[in-house]
Specification:
Blueprint: E1 8-11, H1 16-27, E2 32-35, H2 41-48, E3 52-54, H3 59-69, E4 73-76, H4 85-92, E5 97-99, H5 100-108, E6 113-117, H6 122-135, E7 141-148, E8 153-156, E9 163-166, E10 181-184, H7 198-211, E11 214-218, H8 222-227, E12 232-235, E13 244-252, E14 255-262, E15 265-272, H9 277-292, H10 297-303, E16 315-320, E17 323-328, H11 333-349, E18 360-365, H12 370-375, H13 377-384, E19 389-392, H14 408-418, E20 424-426, H15 430-440, E21 445-450, H16 458-464
Parallel strand pairs: 1-2, 1-4, 2-3, 4-5, 6-9, 6-10, 7-9, 10-11, 11-12, 12-13, 17-21, 18-19, 18-21, 19-20
Antiparallel strand pairs: 7-8, 13-14, 14-15, 16-17
Helix pairs in contact: 3-4, 6-9, 11-13, 13-14
């Protein structure tokens, strides 16, 4: 599909999935252009990398690109609507239009690749793999659905043998990938706007797995155990019957000490700077993938200290009037539960990677999509009831039409039913949400903003209220 002599044009080039591909292809010598109405740091980085970025998504943009460079290959994502003016013009001119997953598939299928899929943890796991490979001088190419701290980017062009990619299951497009090593973190029903039931999701991931040369999977996940035949398994529960295992010796709010096993034999200890059992599993998968690609364990053992989660994964934004403000992408009940469990460990142990030990846990949650909120209402309520105080932001629809009886107020009522006596507030706007946080939180609180929508603006909104502090710099 990719022809070095054919230019590429990305509609919505600043998106998290599109920008990584555009940057890598530009670094590989392709003529790349794109459009995006936002002038974000990601867009500016693309311009510095030689990508021509148009501010307006209008028919004239396609006409300009077409006139300047002939017949470009036009790339879209699932977020580009059918009525987009550029897309309409591209089709009128008879240009070839492909989905971003087709470009990613061309990259994955063209060199030895590690493709990470699963319901939860795939962005973190692929970030950890790419970080370990870079730290051990493997010089990987990486296409990740989040900002990798080691690269300060979601994409990296490397000269090494391996490519690391996050394989998103949300629209089923990962069946196009034929990875050298496929990796499955876990399976749980999600994306109910695309998958009618769990069986449909399992069938899609089975297609992904069967196309991989080898499959590495999480033995601790019951659905994976039942429905998949992996070439290699990992576990954080037992070293028996698996190729790789990390068994925790001490779990703290600032990390985990663990013994690492290969084929049941203890090979060394790990000092993981990421707290939480879910992060131990993600790190075990990352180390296992690197070992299967021939990286010596002793080098990985030394590189582990460099591991950091990707952006929006327990991302400490700063201190606001002695409150610690953290942003997290959790938007499924299992993710919310894992994030709050990890935060509770920090409160209980008095140890954390945060600038000060948190004293109390304030959960700020933004429901994402009406369909997801309806499907998982009770799961969200159960997870959120772990907090000391809960604030529910306005539901982020992601373009979905409202559903009767599904709202932030309905979720708040479900949380109150789960946690009698738990204070639960609902905001009608993000401005009101910031005011509520300021009014009901107190010094020493961990204010944990969770969701896949625009709740990540909470830090800026709090800072705008006064006494604006400087964001923390890693």
């Amino acid at each position: 599909m990719l022809d070095r002599h054919q230019p590429l044009h990305f509609i919505g080039v600043g998106g998290i999935g599109m920008s990584a591909l555009a940057g890598i292809l530009a670094a590989r010598g392709y003529l790349v252009s794109g459009s995006d109405p936002r002038n974000t740091p990601v867009v500016e980085a693309l311009r510095r990398a030689g990508v021509t970025v148009f501010h307006e998504q209008v028919a004239e943009t396609i006409q300009t690109v077409h006139t300047a460079s002939g017949d470009p290959l036009v790339v879209i994502s699932s977020a580009v609507p059918a009525g987009n003016a550029e897309l309409i013009e591209a089709r009128r001119l008879g240009l070839t239009v492909v989905h971003r997953s087709d470009i990613l598939a061309a990259l994955i299928n063209s060199q030895p690749s590690i493709a990470v899929a699963g319901s939860h943890g795939k962005t973190t796991t692929s970030t950890l793999i790419a970080t370990l490979l870079e730290a051990t001088q493997q010089d990987p190419t990486a296409v990740i659905g989040g900002i990798v701290p080691a690269f300060a980017s979601n994409g990296r062009h490397g000269e090494g043998r391996l490519l690391v990619a996050e394989a998103d299951e949300s629209d089923g497009s990962l069946v196009k990938f034929s990875a050298h090593l496929g990796l499955l973190t876990n399976i749980e029903l999600d994306h109910t706007d695309h998958y009618p039931d769990l069986d449909a999701l399992i069938a899609t991931l089975q297609q992904f797995a069967s196309a991989a040369d080898r499959l590495l999977a999480n033995r601790d996940d019951p659905i994976l155990r039942e429905h998949f035949e992996a070439d290699h398994w990992w576990s954080t529960l037992s070293p028996s019957g698996v190729a790789f295992a990390a068994i925790a010796r001490e779990e703290r709010g600032d990390g985990t000490s663990a013994d690492f096993y290969e084929d049941g034999t203890l090979v060394g200890q790990l000092e993981l700077p990421l707290p939480g059992r879910h992060n131990l599993s993600n790190a075990t998968a990352a180390i296992a993938a690197c070992r299967l690609e021939g990286v010596p364990f002793v080098e990985l053992q030394q590189a582990i200290s460099r591991l950091q989660p990707p952006g929006r994964r327990f991302d400490c934004r700063g201190l606001w009037q002695e409150r610690i403000v953290v942003d997290d992408y959790a938007h499924h009940p299992s993710e919310v539960d894992a994030t709050l469990t990890m935060a509770r460990l920090m409160v209980r142990s008095g140890r954390s990677p945060l600038p000060q030990p948190p004293q109390r846990l304030v959960a700020v949650f933004q429901p994402h999509r009406y369909s997801r909120t309806a499907q998982f209402m009770e799961g969200f309520a159960k997870a959120l009831s772990q907090a000391d105080l809960v604030l529910v932001a306005p539901l982020y629809s992601a373009g979905e039409a409202p559903m009767p009886g599904i709202s932030s107020c309905a979720l708040a009522a479900a949380v109150r039913d789960r946690g009698p006596g738990l204070e639960v507030l609902v905001a009608d706007s993000l401005e009101e949400l910031a005011d509520q946080v300021a009014a009901v939180s107190r010094p020493g609180d961990l204010v944990l903003a969770m969701g896949a929508g625009d709740v990540n603006s909470l830090w800026d909104r709090l800072a705008a209220l006064g006494d604006r502090p400087a964001a923390l710099v890693a």
